[in-house]
Amino acid sequence: MRTSRIGLCVLASGAFALGALAPAAHAQSNVSVTVMKETNNGPVAGPLMPGDQADVVLSNCASGVTSGTATSSAFTATATLQASADRPTLQGFPTIANVAAGTYTVTASCGSFSATTTFVVATGTTPTTPATPVGPVRTGVGSTSQGIDSTETGAGAALVALAGGGAFALRRKLRSGR
What SS3 class is residue 58? Predict the structure, then answer.
């Protein structure tokens, strides 16, 4: 009888230990990686181009893991991922190599866990200077950037004078009590 109780206690404590470890193992199965284009205003979605800096974010790593790596044939080198200052993730900024346009795979890892996703590299090169407008911006009716002629100026002045005269006459009428 005593051996069966001891056996039952050992079995129960083993089941408890396995049950306590199961959520920790399950929590790491949702490790995920995202790749976006890094800009001066933060990461943006869309295709990357050779020379662009990517923003690689690895989420849901094990507690206490502060670094990882990300590899892709589209990167100039393996990216080191560090703990992000503003969110509980690992983050790195690899440069896109001079590769052909297409879909590339990135594999990021933290500790014994890893995640894989794809991203797109487009053709062309990253512009070195932002585009600047040439000439006035066409905004439609009412824009002074298109120039005005003397007829429009005269009509506008007449409307302002008429409105001012009407307001003056109305005020005078109200003051006289008529």
Answer: strand
Angle at alpha carbon of residue 119, lines to 114 and 120, rounded to 5°: 160
Structure tokens at 154: 């005269």
Residue with tokens 């703990």: 83
How far apart, in Å, are the Cα atoms of 68 and each of 2, 84, 113?
A: 51, 12, 10
Distances (CA, A) of 70 to 19, 54, 58, 151: 32, 11, 9, 66
Q: Which of 114, 116, 57 is nearest to 84 (CA)?
A: 57
pTM given for the model: 0.53
Q: Return the exposure string of 89-121: e unless at least 16 CB atoms fall within 10 Å of the residue's CB, then b.
A: bbbbebbbeebeeeebebebbbeebbbeeebeb
Helices assigned H by DSSP within the chain: 2-27, 150-176
pLDDT in tens, 90-115: 999 999 999 999 999 999 998 888 99
Q: Tell me the per-residue pLDDT of 110-152, one tens digit each, with 9 for 90 and over.
A: 888 899 999 999 986 555 555 565 666 555 555 554 566 778 7
Contact 49, 127 (CB under 8 A): no
